[in-house]
Protein backbone atom coordinates (compact mmCIF):
# COMPACT_ATOMS: atom_id res chain seq x y z
CA UNK A 1 0.00 0.00 0.00
CA UNK A 2 2.88 2.31 0.15
CA UNK A 3 3.65 3.37 -3.27
CA UNK A 4 7.30 4.12 -3.47
CA UNK A 5 10.08 1.67 -3.05
CA UNK A 6 11.83 3.58 -0.42
CA UNK A 7 8.86 3.95 1.60
CA UNK A 8 8.69 0.42 1.28
CA UNK A 9 10.62 -1.41 3.53
CA UNK A 10 10.12 -4.90 3.08
CA UNK A 11 10.71 -6.06 6.39
CA UNK A 12 12.17 -6.02 9.33
CA UNK A 13 10.05 -5.02 11.27
CA UNK A 14 11.99 -5.05 12.05
CA UNK A 15 14.52 -5.39 12.26
CA UNK A 16 15.52 -4.94 9.98
CA UNK A 17 17.02 -6.63 10.03
CA UNK A 18 17.25 -5.76 8.65
CA UNK A 19 16.95 -3.43 8.94
CA UNK A 20 14.29 -3.33 8.73
CA UNK A 21 13.37 -0.12 8.46
CA UNK A 22 9.99 -0.02 7.59
CA UNK A 23 7.27 2.43 7.27
CA UNK A 24 4.07 0.83 8.29
CA UNK A 25 0.98 2.25 6.75
CA UNK A 26 -1.30 3.26 9.55
CA UNK A 27 -4.19 1.35 8.17
CA UNK A 28 -2.28 -1.86 8.25
CA UNK A 29 -2.00 -1.66 11.99
CA UNK A 30 -5.52 -0.67 12.56
CA UNK A 31 -7.07 -3.35 10.57
CA UNK A 32 -4.88 -5.99 12.13
CA UNK A 33 -6.16 -4.96 15.50
CA UNK A 34 -9.77 -4.84 14.59
CA UNK A 35 -9.54 -8.24 13.19
CA UNK A 36 -8.16 -10.16 16.07
CA UNK A 37 -9.05 -7.85 18.88
CA UNK A 38 -5.48 -7.72 19.90
CA UNK A 39 -2.94 -6.77 17.31
CA UNK A 40 0.13 -8.32 18.72
CA UNK A 41 2.63 -5.70 17.71
CA UNK A 42 0.48 -2.75 18.72
CA UNK A 43 -0.40 -4.54 21.87
CA UNK A 44 3.25 -5.03 22.57
CA UNK A 45 3.94 -1.34 22.16
CA UNK A 46 1.07 -0.37 24.36
CA UNK A 47 2.39 -2.62 27.08
CA UNK A 48 5.92 -1.34 26.60
CA UNK A 49 4.87 2.26 26.62
CA UNK A 50 2.73 1.79 29.65
CA UNK A 51 5.58 0.04 31.39
CA UNK A 52 8.02 2.79 30.59
CA UNK A 53 5.66 5.58 31.49
CA UNK A 54 5.14 3.88 34.78
CA UNK A 55 8.86 3.64 35.38
CA UNK A 56 9.33 7.28 34.43
CA UNK A 57 6.65 8.39 36.78
CA UNK A 58 8.30 6.59 39.62
CA UNK A 59 11.68 7.96 38.70
CA UNK A 60 10.38 11.46 38.28
CA UNK A 61 8.74 11.23 41.64
CA UNK A 62 11.93 10.03 43.30
CA UNK A 63 13.83 12.81 41.63
CA UNK A 64 11.33 15.29 42.76
CA UNK A 65 11.51 14.11 46.34
CA UNK A 66 15.26 13.96 46.28
CA UNK A 67 16.08 17.27 44.70
CA UNK A 68 12.96 19.14 45.33
CA UNK A 69 13.40 22.66 46.35
CA UNK A 70 9.74 22.82 45.67
CA UNK A 71 10.08 24.45 42.33
CA UNK A 72 7.68 23.48 39.59
CA UNK A 73 8.98 22.64 36.21
CA UNK A 74 6.83 24.64 33.86
CA UNK A 75 7.35 22.09 31.12
CA UNK A 76 6.27 19.07 32.93
CA UNK A 77 3.98 16.79 31.04
CA UNK A 78 4.44 18.80 27.91
CA UNK A 79 4.51 15.68 25.87
CA UNK A 80 2.77 13.24 28.01
CA UNK A 81 0.76 11.37 25.46
CA UNK A 82 -2.37 11.13 27.48
CA UNK A 83 -1.81 13.39 30.37
CA UNK A 84 -0.86 12.43 33.83
CA UNK A 85 2.81 11.81 33.30
CA UNK A 86 5.10 14.06 35.21
CA UNK A 87 7.92 14.83 32.89
CA UNK A 88 11.43 14.21 33.85
CA UNK A 89 13.36 17.25 34.96
CA UNK A 90 14.52 19.32 32.04
CA UNK A 91 17.37 21.65 31.49
CA UNK A 92 16.53 25.25 32.15
CA UNK A 93 16.26 26.06 28.49
CA UNK A 94 12.52 25.74 28.62
CA UNK A 95 12.23 22.16 27.44
CA UNK A 96 14.10 22.65 24.21
CA UNK A 97 17.54 21.16 24.22
CA UNK A 98 20.16 23.45 22.84
CA UNK A 99 22.10 21.87 20.08
CA UNK A 100 25.26 21.21 21.97
CA UNK A 101 26.23 18.06 20.13
CA UNK A 102 27.07 17.93 16.50
CA UNK A 103 27.79 14.84 14.50
CA UNK A 104 31.17 14.44 12.93
CA UNK A 105 31.13 13.24 9.35
CA UNK A 106 34.23 11.60 8.08
CA UNK A 107 35.55 13.49 5.06
CA UNK A 108 35.70 11.36 1.93
CA UNK A 109 37.91 13.83 -0.01
CA UNK A 110 37.57 11.90 -3.29
CA UNK A 111 37.01 8.37 -4.48
CA UNK A 112 40.16 6.31 -3.97
CA UNK A 113 41.53 8.60 -1.27
CA UNK A 114 43.23 6.63 1.51
CA UNK A 115 43.51 7.98 5.04
CA UNK A 116 45.24 6.40 7.98
CA UNK A 117 43.15 5.85 11.07
CA UNK A 118 44.20 4.75 14.52
CA UNK A 119 41.61 2.36 15.92
CA UNK A 120 43.56 -0.10 18.04
CA UNK A 121 46.78 0.59 19.96
CA UNK A 122 49.91 -0.14 17.99
CA UNK A 123 48.17 -0.53 14.66
CA UNK A 124 47.28 1.82 11.84
CA UNK A 125 44.38 1.01 9.54
CA UNK A 126 43.91 2.36 6.06
CA UNK A 127 40.50 3.68 5.17
CA UNK A 128 39.70 4.06 1.50
CA UNK A 129 36.91 6.19 0.11
CA UNK A 130 34.78 4.03 -2.19
CA UNK A 131 32.14 6.58 -3.15
CA UNK A 132 30.87 10.01 -2.18
CA UNK A 133 27.22 9.29 -2.92
CA UNK A 134 26.69 7.62 -0.55
CA UNK A 135 29.70 8.58 1.54
CA UNK A 136 31.24 5.11 1.73
CA UNK A 137 34.54 3.77 3.08
CA UNK A 138 36.37 0.47 3.24
CA UNK A 139 38.78 -0.54 6.03
CA UNK A 140 40.66 -3.81 5.46
CA UNK A 141 41.64 -5.74 8.58
CA UNK A 142 39.16 -3.93 10.81
CA UNK A 143 38.50 -7.23 12.61
CA UNK A 144 41.10 -9.88 13.31
CA UNK A 145 40.52 -13.48 12.24
CA UNK A 146 39.93 -14.39 15.86
CA UNK A 147 37.32 -11.69 16.29
CA UNK A 148 35.51 -12.88 13.17
CA UNK A 149 35.51 -16.41 14.51
CA UNK A 150 34.19 -15.37 17.94
CA UNK A 151 31.34 -13.33 16.43
CA UNK A 152 30.26 -16.21 14.19
CA UNK A 153 30.43 -18.65 17.08
CA UNK A 154 28.44 -16.41 19.41
CA UNK A 155 25.80 -16.01 16.73
CA UNK A 156 25.55 -19.77 16.26
CA UNK A 157 25.41 -20.28 19.98
CA UNK A 158 22.55 -17.86 20.24
CA UNK A 159 20.78 -19.30 17.19
CA UNK A 160 19.77 -17.63 13.95
CA UNK A 161 16.29 -17.07 12.63
CA UNK A 162 14.88 -16.63 9.15
CA UNK A 163 15.34 -13.04 8.07
CA UNK A 164 12.11 -13.13 6.18
CA UNK A 165 9.21 -15.40 6.71
CA UNK A 166 7.14 -16.75 3.90
CA UNK A 167 4.04 -14.73 3.47
CA UNK A 168 0.88 -16.49 4.41
CA UNK A 169 -2.62 -15.97 3.25
CA UNK A 170 -4.65 -13.47 5.16
CA UNK A 171 -4.03 -10.34 3.18
CA UNK A 172 -7.42 -10.74 1.66
CA UNK A 173 -9.17 -10.20 4.95
CA UNK A 174 -7.01 -7.19 5.58
CA UNK A 175 -7.99 -5.69 2.26
CA UNK A 176 -11.64 -6.40 3.01
CA UNK A 177 -11.48 -4.61 6.29
CA UNK A 178 -9.88 -1.61 4.70
CA UNK A 179 -12.67 -1.77 2.19
CA UNK A 180 -10.71 0.06 -0.48
CA UNK A 181 -12.38 0.23 -3.82
CA UNK A 182 -10.58 -0.98 -6.93
CA UNK A 183 -10.14 2.66 -7.98
CA UNK A 184 -8.55 3.55 -4.68
CA UNK A 185 -6.08 0.71 -4.90
CA UNK A 186 -5.39 1.50 -8.52
CA UNK A 187 -4.61 5.09 -7.68
CA UNK A 188 -2.31 4.08 -4.86
CA UNK A 189 -0.35 1.89 -7.23
CA UNK A 190 -0.29 4.29 -10.15
CA UNK A 191 2.78 6.18 -9.01
CA UNK A 192 3.08 8.36 -12.08
CA UNK A 193 -0.69 8.82 -12.28
CA UNK A 194 -0.92 8.08 -15.97
CA UNK A 195 -4.01 5.92 -15.63
CA UNK A 196 -2.15 2.69 -16.42
CA UNK A 197 -0.20 0.31 -14.24
CA UNK A 198 3.26 -0.33 -15.65
CA UNK A 199 5.09 -3.49 -14.71
CA UNK A 200 7.37 -1.62 -12.34
CA UNK A 201 4.48 -0.10 -10.45
CA UNK A 202 3.10 -3.56 -9.76
CA UNK A 203 6.52 -4.99 -8.95
CA UNK A 204 7.29 -2.30 -6.43
CA UNK A 205 3.98 -2.81 -4.73
CA UNK A 206 4.23 -6.54 -4.45
CA UNK A 207 7.67 -6.41 -2.86
CA UNK A 208 6.48 -4.03 -0.27
CA UNK A 209 3.38 -5.89 0.52
CA UNK A 210 4.26 -9.55 0.38
CA UNK A 211 8.02 -9.67 0.61
CA UNK A 212 7.92 -11.73 -2.58
CA UNK A 213 10.33 -10.53 -5.20
CA UNK A 214 8.66 -10.70 -8.58
CA UNK A 215 10.61 -10.37 -11.77
CA UNK A 216 9.01 -8.90 -14.88
CA UNK A 217 8.77 -12.43 -16.30
CA UNK A 218 6.97 -13.67 -13.18
CA UNK A 219 4.51 -10.88 -13.60
CA UNK A 220 3.87 -11.65 -17.24
CA UNK A 221 3.33 -15.26 -16.30
CA UNK A 222 0.78 -14.16 -13.70
CA UNK A 223 -0.96 -11.88 -16.19
CA UNK A 224 -1.19 -14.79 -18.59
CA UNK A 225 -2.39 -17.21 -15.89
CA UNK A 226 -5.08 -14.82 -14.72
CA UNK A 227 -5.82 -13.48 -18.20
CA UNK A 228 -5.43 -10.10 -16.62
CA UNK A 229 -3.95 -8.15 -19.49
CA UNK A 230 -6.71 -8.59 -22.04
CA UNK A 231 -5.23 -6.40 -24.74
CA UNK A 232 -1.70 -7.69 -24.17
CA UNK A 233 -0.01 -4.32 -24.03
CA UNK A 234 1.90 -5.09 -20.82
CA UNK A 235 -0.10 -2.49 -18.94
CA UNK A 236 -3.10 -2.83 -16.68
CA UNK A 237 -5.82 -0.31 -17.19
CA UNK A 238 -8.33 0.44 -14.49
CA UNK A 239 -10.85 -1.63 -16.43
CA UNK A 240 -8.52 -4.63 -16.49
CA UNK A 241 -7.57 -4.09 -12.88
CA UNK A 242 -11.17 -4.02 -11.75
CA UNK A 243 -11.66 -7.58 -12.96
CA UNK A 244 -8.97 -8.88 -10.59
CA UNK A 245 -9.56 -9.59 -6.94
CA UNK A 246 -7.28 -7.69 -4.63
CA UNK A 247 -5.43 -10.85 -3.77
CA UNK A 248 -5.35 -12.42 -7.18
CA UNK A 249 -1.60 -12.19 -7.66
CA UNK A 250 -0.77 -13.56 -4.29
CA UNK A 251 -3.20 -16.42 -4.63
CA UNK A 252 -1.70 -17.30 -7.94
CA UNK A 253 1.80 -17.31 -6.48
CA UNK A 254 0.96 -19.26 -3.38
CA UNK A 255 -0.78 -21.88 -5.45
CA UNK A 256 2.19 -22.19 -7.71
CA UNK A 257 4.55 -22.20 -4.71
CA UNK A 258 7.02 -19.57 -3.55
CA UNK A 259 10.64 -20.54 -2.99
CA UNK A 260 12.99 -18.91 -0.52
CA UNK A 261 15.01 -17.61 -3.41
CA UNK A 262 11.97 -15.57 -4.45
CA UNK A 263 11.81 -13.60 -1.25
CA UNK A 264 13.21 -10.11 -0.82
CA UNK A 265 15.88 -11.61 1.41
CA UNK A 266 17.08 -15.12 1.81
CA UNK A 267 19.25 -15.34 4.92
CA UNK A 268 19.19 -16.01 8.64
CA UNK A 269 20.23 -13.61 11.35
CA UNK A 270 20.51 -12.94 15.05
CA UNK A 271 21.35 -10.04 17.37
CA UNK A 272 24.24 -9.77 19.81
CA UNK A 273 24.07 -7.35 22.67
CA UNK A 274 27.23 -5.28 23.07
CA UNK A 275 26.82 -3.49 26.39
CA UNK A 276 28.27 -4.19 29.79
CA UNK A 277 28.75 -7.85 30.48
CA UNK A 278 28.85 -8.78 26.80
CA UNK A 279 31.74 -10.79 25.40
CA UNK A 280 34.90 -8.66 25.32
CA UNK A 281 35.18 -8.98 21.55
CA UNK A 282 31.71 -7.48 21.12
CA UNK A 283 32.53 -4.57 23.40
CA UNK A 284 35.85 -4.02 21.61
CA UNK A 285 34.07 -3.85 18.28
CA UNK A 286 31.66 -1.28 19.60
CA UNK A 287 34.49 0.88 20.89
CA UNK A 288 36.36 0.58 17.62
CA UNK A 289 33.25 1.65 15.73
CA UNK A 290 32.97 4.68 18.00
CA UNK A 291 36.55 5.64 17.21
CA UNK A 292 36.03 5.02 13.50
CA UNK A 293 32.90 7.14 13.20
CA UNK A 294 34.04 9.79 15.70
CA UNK A 295 30.51 10.02 17.06
CA UNK A 296 29.61 10.57 20.72
CA UNK A 297 29.97 7.21 22.55
CA UNK A 298 26.47 7.52 23.99
CA UNK A 299 24.97 7.45 20.52
CA UNK A 300 26.80 4.25 19.71
CA UNK A 301 25.94 2.73 23.10
CA UNK A 302 22.27 3.44 22.58
CA UNK A 303 22.13 1.94 19.11
CA UNK A 304 20.82 -1.43 18.04
CA UNK A 305 22.78 -4.53 19.02
CA UNK A 306 25.14 -6.12 16.52
CA UNK A 307 23.26 -8.04 13.85
CA UNK A 308 24.94 -11.17 12.49
CA UNK A 309 23.67 -12.51 9.17
CA UNK A 310 24.35 -15.84 7.53
CA UNK A 311 23.72 -16.45 3.83
CA UNK A 312 23.92 -19.96 2.53
CA UNK A 313 24.78 -20.76 -1.05
CA UNK A 314 22.00 -19.18 -3.07
CA UNK A 315 21.33 -16.53 -0.42
CA UNK A 316 20.84 -12.88 -1.36
CA UNK A 317 19.29 -9.64 -0.21
CA UNK A 318 17.78 -7.45 -2.91
CA UNK A 319 18.73 -3.79 -2.90
CA UNK A 320 17.15 -1.65 -0.20
CA UNK A 321 18.00 1.18 2.15
CA UNK A 322 18.71 0.57 5.79
CA UNK A 323 16.81 3.57 6.94
CA UNK A 324 13.56 5.30 6.12
CA UNK A 325 12.86 8.70 4.63
CA UNK A 326 12.23 11.61 6.95
CA UNK A 327 8.66 12.83 7.09
CA UNK A 328 7.32 15.11 9.77
CA UNK A 329 5.09 12.32 11.08
CA UNK A 330 7.84 9.76 11.14
CA UNK A 331 8.96 8.42 14.47
CA UNK A 332 12.19 6.52 14.84
CA UNK A 333 11.85 3.11 16.38
CA UNK A 334 14.76 3.70 18.73
CA UNK A 335 13.41 6.95 20.20
CA UNK A 336 9.79 5.90 20.32
CA UNK A 337 9.89 6.34 24.06
CA UNK A 338 10.39 10.03 23.62
CA UNK A 339 7.97 10.52 20.76
CA UNK A 340 4.28 10.99 20.45
CA UNK A 341 3.08 7.47 20.75
CA UNK A 342 0.23 8.23 18.43
CA UNK A 343 2.45 8.70 15.42
CA UNK A 344 1.41 6.32 12.68
CA UNK A 345 4.75 6.06 10.90
CA UNK A 346 7.64 4.27 12.39
CA UNK A 347 10.97 3.62 10.78
CA UNK A 348 14.49 2.66 11.78
CA UNK A 349 16.68 5.74 11.83
CA UNK A 350 20.10 4.39 11.03
CA UNK A 351 22.46 7.23 10.45
CA UNK A 352 25.41 4.96 9.71
CA UNK A 353 25.74 1.34 8.65
CA UNK A 354 28.98 -0.45 9.49
CA UNK A 355 29.10 -3.78 7.68
CA UNK A 356 31.74 -6.36 8.65
CA UNK A 357 32.69 -9.32 6.52
CA UNK A 358 33.31 -12.24 8.84
CA UNK A 359 34.53 -14.61 6.13
CA UNK A 360 35.85 -14.45 2.62
CA UNK A 361 33.14 -15.67 0.29
CA UNK A 362 34.27 -18.16 -2.33
CA UNK A 363 31.92 -16.96 -5.02
CA UNK A 364 29.46 -14.07 -5.28
CA UNK A 365 28.02 -12.41 -2.19
CA UNK A 366 29.35 -8.95 -3.05
CA UNK A 367 27.70 -5.93 -1.53
CA UNK A 368 26.30 -4.00 -4.48
CA UNK A 369 25.54 -0.29 -4.55
CA UNK A 370 23.50 0.04 -7.74
CA UNK A 371 23.54 3.85 -7.94
CA UNK A 372 26.71 4.78 -6.03
CA UNK A 373 28.11 8.03 -7.43
CA UNK A 374 25.60 7.99 -10.28
CA UNK A 375 25.40 11.40 -11.87
CA UNK A 376 21.69 11.67 -11.15
CA UNK A 377 19.15 9.60 -9.31
CA UNK A 378 15.77 8.76 -10.73
CA UNK A 379 13.53 6.34 -8.92
CA UNK A 380 11.73 5.38 -12.07
CA UNK A 381 14.82 4.31 -13.95
CA UNK A 382 15.70 1.66 -11.39
CA UNK A 383 13.47 -0.75 -13.26
CA UNK A 384 13.66 -0.28 -16.98
CA UNK A 385 13.15 -2.51 -19.96
CA UNK A 386 13.13 -5.62 -17.85
CA UNK A 387 16.37 -4.69 -16.14
CA UNK A 388 15.73 -4.27 -12.47
CA UNK A 389 18.79 -2.74 -10.84
CA UNK A 390 17.45 -3.70 -7.44
CA UNK A 391 17.54 -7.39 -8.29
CA UNK A 392 20.74 -8.75 -6.79
CA UNK A 393 20.20 -12.24 -8.11
CA UNK A 394 20.41 -11.05 -11.68
CA UNK A 395 21.77 -7.59 -12.04
CA UNK A 396 24.64 -7.12 -9.64
CA UNK A 397 26.94 -6.81 -12.63
CA UNK A 398 25.08 -3.64 -13.58
CA UNK A 399 25.60 -2.01 -10.20
CA UNK A 400 27.85 1.02 -10.16
CA UNK A 401 29.88 -0.39 -7.28
CA UNK A 402 30.45 -3.82 -5.76
CA UNK A 403 32.49 -4.68 -2.68
CA UNK A 404 33.93 -8.17 -2.45
CA UNK A 405 33.46 -9.81 0.93
CA UNK A 406 36.90 -10.25 2.48
CA UNK A 407 37.33 -11.60 5.98
CA UNK A 408 37.93 -8.84 8.54
CA UNK A 409 37.16 -5.96 6.19
CA UNK A 410 34.62 -3.37 7.30
CA UNK A 411 32.75 -0.98 5.05
CA UNK A 412 30.69 1.87 6.40
CA UNK A 413 28.43 4.48 4.92
CA UNK A 414 26.04 7.24 5.83
CA UNK A 415 22.37 6.60 5.14
CA UNK A 416 21.52 10.27 5.63
CA UNK A 417 22.99 13.50 4.39
CA UNK A 418 23.99 16.23 6.78
CA UNK A 419 21.49 19.01 7.50
CA UNK A 420 24.38 21.45 7.22
CA UNK A 421 24.12 22.30 10.91
CA UNK A 422 25.84 19.30 12.37
CA UNK A 423 22.84 17.03 12.56
CA UNK A 424 21.04 14.47 10.39
CA UNK A 425 19.43 15.72 7.19
CA UNK A 426 17.58 13.98 4.37
CA UNK A 427 17.85 10.32 3.63
CA UNK A 428 20.59 9.66 1.07
CA UNK A 429 18.86 8.07 -1.91
CA UNK A 430 22.17 6.79 -3.19
CA UNK A 431 22.61 4.58 -0.11
CA UNK A 432 20.70 1.83 -1.90
CA UNK A 433 22.57 -1.49 -1.52
CA UNK A 434 22.03 -5.22 -1.51
CA UNK A 435 23.75 -8.57 -1.12
CA UNK A 436 24.47 -10.33 -4.40
CA UNK A 437 23.63 -13.99 -4.60
CA UNK A 438 26.22 -16.27 -3.01
CA UNK A 439 27.31 -18.62 -5.78
CA UNK A 440 29.92 -20.69 -3.90
CA UNK A 441 30.25 -21.32 -0.19
CA UNK A 442 28.49 -19.31 2.48
CA UNK A 443 28.66 -15.73 3.66
CA UNK A 444 28.79 -14.34 7.17
CA UNK A 445 28.46 -10.63 7.85
CA UNK A 446 27.65 -8.44 10.81
CA UNK A 447 25.94 -5.05 10.82
CA UNK A 448 26.39 -2.31 13.35
CA UNK A 449 23.84 0.43 12.90
CA UNK A 450 24.22 3.75 14.61
CA UNK A 451 20.80 5.13 15.35
CA UNK A 452 20.28 8.86 15.37
CA UNK A 453 16.93 10.60 15.29
CA UNK A 454 16.81 13.31 12.62
CA UNK A 455 14.76 15.24 15.16
CA UNK A 456 17.40 16.55 17.54
CA UNK A 457 14.92 17.29 20.31
CA UNK A 458 13.58 13.78 20.27
CA UNK A 459 17.03 12.22 20.33
CA UNK A 460 18.05 14.49 23.23
CA UNK A 461 14.88 13.74 25.14
CA UNK A 462 15.35 10.03 24.58
CA UNK A 463 18.93 10.11 25.81
CA UNK A 464 17.87 12.03 28.84
CA UNK A 465 15.16 9.51 29.62
CA UNK A 466 17.52 6.58 29.24
CA UNK A 467 20.22 8.20 31.35
CA UNK A 468 17.75 8.31 34.19
CA UNK A 469 16.94 4.64 34.09
CA UNK A 470 18.72 2.28 36.44
CA UNK A 471 21.74 0.70 34.83
CA UNK A 472 20.33 -2.64 33.80
CA UNK A 473 17.25 -0.95 32.53
CA UNK A 474 19.18 1.37 30.30
CA UNK A 475 21.01 -1.51 28.74
CA UNK A 476 17.74 -2.98 27.65
CA UNK A 477 16.05 0.15 26.59
CA UNK A 478 18.01 0.96 23.49
CA UNK A 479 17.05 -2.11 21.61
CA UNK A 480 13.34 -1.93 21.11
CA UNK A 481 13.70 -2.53 17.46
CA UNK A 482 15.66 -5.69 17.60
CA UNK A 483 13.16 -8.13 16.27
CA UNK A 484 10.34 -7.28 18.54
CA UNK A 485 8.30 -9.35 16.25
CA UNK A 486 10.21 -12.54 16.58
CA UNK A 487 11.93 -12.51 19.89
CA UNK A 488 11.45 -9.50 21.98
CA UNK A 489 14.29 -9.95 24.36
CA UNK A 490 17.82 -10.59 23.27
CA UNK A 491 19.89 -12.68 25.54
CA UNK A 492 23.06 -11.24 26.79
CA UNK A 493 25.84 -13.17 25.24
C1 LIG B 1 -17.43 -1.00 1.68
O1 LIG B 1 -17.69 0.18 0.95
C2 LIG B 1 -18.85 0.11 0.11
C3 LIG B 1 -18.92 1.37 -0.73
O2 LIG B 1 -18.01 2.32 -0.33
C4 LIG B 1 -20.08 -0.08 1.00
O3 LIG B 1 -21.23 -0.15 0.20
C5 LIG B 1 -19.90 -1.34 1.79
O4 LIG B 1 -21.00 -1.52 2.68
C6 LIG B 1 -18.61 -1.34 2.58
N1 LIG B 1 -18.41 -2.64 3.19
C7 LIG B 1 -18.00 -2.79 4.45
C8 LIG B 1 -17.83 -4.19 4.91
O5 LIG B 1 -17.79 -1.84 5.18
C1 LIG C 1 2.91 15.54 19.85
O1 LIG C 1 1.89 15.94 18.97
C2 LIG C 1 1.34 17.21 19.25
C3 LIG C 1 0.19 17.45 18.30
O2 LIG C 1 0.46 16.94 17.03
C4 LIG C 1 2.43 18.26 19.13
O3 LIG C 1 1.90 19.53 19.43
C5 LIG C 1 3.55 17.92 20.10
O4 LIG C 1 4.61 18.83 19.93
C6 LIG C 1 4.06 16.51 19.84
N1 LIG C 1 5.03 16.15 20.85
C7 LIG C 1 6.17 15.56 20.54
C8 LIG C 1 7.01 15.16 21.68
O5 LIG C 1 6.52 15.35 19.40
C1 LIG D 1 22.30 7.27 -13.50
O1 LIG D 1 22.78 8.40 -14.18
C2 LIG D 1 22.42 8.47 -15.54
C3 LIG D 1 23.11 9.71 -16.12
O2 LIG D 1 22.72 10.85 -15.42
C4 LIG D 1 20.92 8.53 -15.67
O3 LIG D 1 20.55 8.54 -17.02
C5 LIG D 1 20.30 7.34 -14.98
O4 LIG D 1 18.90 7.44 -14.99
C6 LIG D 1 20.78 7.26 -13.55
N1 LIG D 1 20.27 6.05 -12.94
C7 LIG D 1 19.35 6.08 -11.97
C8 LIG D 1 18.91 4.76 -11.45
O5 LIG D 1 18.88 7.10 -11.53
CATH topology label of the largest domain: Jelly Rolls
Q: Architecture of the largest domain, according to CATH?
A: Sandwich
- Say which molecules are bound, naming each kind only once: 2-acetamido-2-deoxy-beta-D-glucopyranose
Largest sheet: 9 strands, antiparallel
Low-confidence stretches: 1-94, 476-493
Radius of gyration: 23 Å
Mean pLDDT: 78
Describe this structure in words.
There is one protein chain. The chain is an alpha+beta fold and 493 residues long. The chain folds into two domains: 114-163 and 264-476, Sandwich (Jelly Rolls); 168-262, EF-hand (Recoverin, domain 1). Helices cover 29% and strands 20% of the residues. It contains 13 helices and 24 strands. The strands form seven sheets. It has a nine-stranded antiparallel beta sheet, with helices on one face. Strands 7-10-22-15-18 form a five-stranded antiparallel beta sheet, with no helix packed on it. Strand 2 (123-131) and strand 3 form a beta hairpin. The chain is globular, with a radius of gyration of 23 Å. The protein starts with 25 loop residues before the first helix and ends in a 17-residue tail after the last helix. The protein binds 2-acetamido-2-deoxy-beta-D-glucopyranose (3 copies). Residues 79, 339-340 line the site of one 2-acetamido-2-deoxy-beta-D-glucopyranose (NAG). Residues 371, 374-378, 381-382 line the site of one 2-acetamido-2-deoxy-beta-D-glucopyranose. It catalyses: L-prolyl-[hypoxia-inducible factor alpha subunit] + 2-oxoglutarate + O2 = trans-4-hydroxy-L-prolyl-[hypoxia-inducible factor alpha subunit] + succinate + CO2. Residues 482-493 have a biased composition (Polar residues). Its cofactor is L-ascorbate. It comes from Oryzias latipes.
Amino acid sequence: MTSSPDAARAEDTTPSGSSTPRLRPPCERLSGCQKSGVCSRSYFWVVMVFFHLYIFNVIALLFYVHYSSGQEDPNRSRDAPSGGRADSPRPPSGGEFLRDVSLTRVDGIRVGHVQKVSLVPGKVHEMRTLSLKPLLFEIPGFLSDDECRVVMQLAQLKGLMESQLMVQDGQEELAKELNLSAEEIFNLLDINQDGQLQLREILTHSRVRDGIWLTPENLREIYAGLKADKNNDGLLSLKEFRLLSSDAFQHFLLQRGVKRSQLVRNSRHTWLYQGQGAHQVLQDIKERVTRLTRLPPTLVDLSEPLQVVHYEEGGHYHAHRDSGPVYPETACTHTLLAANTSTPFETSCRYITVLFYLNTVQGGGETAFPVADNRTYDEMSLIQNDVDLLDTRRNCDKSNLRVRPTKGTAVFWYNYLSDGKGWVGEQDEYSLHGGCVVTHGTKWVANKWINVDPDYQRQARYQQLVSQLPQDESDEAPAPNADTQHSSVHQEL
